[in-house]
Design a protein that fits this description.
The complex is a heterodimer of chains A (297) and B (261).
Chain A: H1 2-7, H2 10-32, H3 44-51, H4 62-72, E1 79-82, E2 85-88, H5 93-124, H6 126-139, H7 144-157, H8 163-186, H9 191-199, H10 204-239, H11 248-257, H12 261-292
Antiparallel strand pairs in A: 1-2
Helix pairs in contact in A: 4-12, 5-6, 5-8, 5-10, 5-11, 7-8, 8-10, 10-12, 11-12
Chain B: E1 5-18, E2 21-34, E3 38-42, H1 49-56, E4 64-69, H2 74-79, E5 83-86, H3 98-109, H4 113-126, H5 142-154, E6 160-164, H6 172-189, E7 192-197, H7 200-206, E8 209-214, E9 219-225, H8 240-260
Parallel strand pairs in B: 3-7, 3-8, 5-6, 6-7
Antiparallel strand pairs in B: 1-2, 1-4, 8-9
Helix pairs in contact in B: 3-4, 3-5, 4-5, 7-8
Classes of the chains: A mainly alpha (297), B alpha/beta (261).
Chain lengths: 297, 261
């Protein structure tokens, strides 16, 4: 057991975490020293004690963030009564997490399908490879913060509001790694394997289904991992311009309006946890798929 | 009386246009291969032996001259799936089991599943790999992988088998074993086999006819008859007859080289 943990890198991970936490705690005093609550406190120990328990610190201490995370998830009712019956309680952080996750997943699905479709088109039509690729690359050089409000407003003006505009922004970001990865993956079979299909007089569809697609699967999963995490970023960015009512983005925004740094930090930690969870799910799917495809363990 | 013609090559030339100017891969090749023959192309690298095989398989287009495969243009022969091709590497699909790899061409041809299985079983038997049907390629040695690729080429029972240095990457012990097995397979099935190699003993041991080629431009400089009978074993390689043929092949190769210098 111990050996397995050691080989799994648990010791270095824990050591690094401890070092980061220690530095964080140490930084709390210098970062917060200009706050009025600390003005008349004398003695290093006393000053740290105050610095670690401030209500609106510039840099909150880790235990404050964990406390807020606990209070705003497990410590708050997830459902509450309303005129429409039971609804998700907006005071609970998980409500906001769910709002963001649903937009993330919708955007991820749209982005992945679009990304694959573009890659298939690019691989099979030579003219598209030259004409489409520069546009695809250019699309990603536009700052998403600039284009997100345009998408929200444009879709809002035709009556599309809520989850879909956020999903569109997610998809705008997440199709890109899939296209790049899949173009690479679909063209990865070497000349010999393609010649083999030629000697069978295989159709393009057969060559695609039996050779190009399976060969691209490992790269697909690598792309999906990048794609899901930027889908999450896209969904959060999509929640900012409208001052959305719900979602992690809304939570960040309201936190910054009211100087609730602990709330902001706990929302950020929630984002990190969600991203880790989503990537872990894809990694699991990857392992199972590659195992089913006979990959060397 | 000679057997009917499998491959007829007349005045065939192939020039690749490259950035450094034209490369004369094949110049004025003439060759007739009868059905049931085992013909080896031997020569140093760059002599066009693989190119010639790829022209037969319609994987390259000749610049001039004519060629027929089973009486058809190479393209029509390919479209009618008249030959099985074995590459230098096993070229197995790593996500398919051994059995699924052998069934690949049969899937492409749209054969029903029961028949696919039956044919895969039969041809894995033929290359003595019956026990490995459900293994993945990486679980097999290099020699076994190449036997799978031979089973795959045979699975749709083409009359013509084109083999491009199939044992080139294997060690000599495995290569010897596979040579013996290939001769047995040839005498059992009586397929026409065209075999590319750069090993003199391999060519002399396997072939009923050896085509000696030389590079720049790639051309045929000698065609040597040599048939040691269907029952031959590796021992014949010590016999004077064998050494005599090997000597003539070596002389041919040497002549080709001196011409070059």
């Amino acid at each position: 057991m111990w050996d397995r943990l050691r080989r799994g890198g648990l010791v270095p991970v824990l050591t690094l975490t401890a070092i980061i936490l220690a530095m964080w705690y140490l930084a709390c005093l210098p970062m917060n020293r200009d706050l009025p609550q600390l003005a008349r406190v004398e003695g290093l120990a006393n000053r740290y004690e105050v610095a670690w328990g401030l209500e609106r610190p510039v840099l909150p201490a880790p235990h404050q963030i964990i406390g807020e995370l606990y209070a705003s998830t497990i410590g708050t009712r997830l459902l509450r009564e309303s005129a429409d019956g039971l609804v998700l309680n907006p005071r609970n952080l998980l409500t906001h997490a769910w709002v963001t996750i649903s937009a993330t997943l919708a955007g991820f699905v749209i982005g992945v399908l679009l990304g694959i479709a573009l890659a298939v088109a690019i691989v099979h039509v030579n003219a598209l490879r030259r004409s489409l690729m520069p546009w695809i690359v250019a699309s990603q050089s536009i700052p998403i913060l600039a284009i997100a409000p345009i998408i929200i407003v444009a879709l809002g003006s035709v009556g599309i509001v809520g989850l879909l505009p956020k999903a569109v922004i997610s998809a705008y970001l997440s199709f890109f790694p899939v296209t790049i990865g899949m173009v690479k993956g679909l063209t990865s079979p070497d000349a010999m394997l393609l010649d083999l299909m030629r000697t069978y007089n295989a159709s393009r569809t057969q060559t695609f289904a039996k050779l190009r697609w399976p060969a691209a699967v490992p790269l697909l999963f690598a792309s999906l991992k990048v794609s899901i995490s930027i889908s999450l970023v896209g969904a959060i960015v999509g929640e900012l311009p409208t001052g959305a009512q719900a979602g992690i983005g809304a939570r960040l925004l309201s936190g910054s309006y009211y100087g609730q740094t602990v709330q902001i930090w706990s929302a950020l930690v929630m984002v990190a946890l969600l991203a880790a969870l989503l990537v872990a799910l894809i990694t699991l799917a990857e392992k199972l798929t590659l195992k089913a495809m006979g990959a060397r363990p | 009386m000679r057997a009917p013609t499998a491959i007829d090559i007349r005045n065939l030339s192939l020039t690749f246009q490259t950035g450094d100017g034209p490369v004369y891969a094949l110049a004025d090749a003439n060759l007739t291969i009868a059905k049931g023959e085992f013909v080896s192309f031997i020569g140093p690298s760059g002599c066009g032996k693989t190119t010639l095989l790829r022209v037969i398989a319609d994987l390259e287009q000749p610049t001039s001259g004519s060629i027929t495969v089973n009486g058809l243009a190479p393209r029509d022969a390919r479209l009618k799936r008249q030959y099985g091709y074995v590459f230098q590497a096993p070229a197995l699909y790593p996500w398919r089991t051994v059995e699924a790899n052998v069934m690949l061409p049969l899937e492409v041809f749209g054969l029903p599943k029961a028949e696919r299985r039956e044919r895969a079983r039969k041809h894995l038997d033929l290359v003595r790999l019956s026990g490995f049907a459900n293994k993945y390629p990486w679980q097999l040695s290099g020699g076994m992988q190449q036997r799978v690729s031979i089973a795959r080429a045979l699975s749709f029972e083409p009359e013509l088998l084109l083999m491009d240095e199939p044992f080139g990457a294997l060690d000599e012990i495995v290569r010897d074993q596979l040579n013996e097995q290939l001769v047995k397979l040839w005498s059992q099935t009586r397929k026409t086999i065209v075999f590319v190699t750069h090993s003199i003993p391999e060519a002399v041991f396997l072939s009923s006819r050896i085509v000696v080629m030389s590079p720049r431009p790639g051309r045929i400089i000698d065609v040597i008859d040599c048939d040691f009978g269907a029952e031959r074993t590796l021992d014949i390689r010590e016999s004077p007859e064998f050494l005599k043929v090997a000597h003539r092949v070596r002389e041919g190769l040497r002549a080709g080289h001196s011409y070059d210098e």
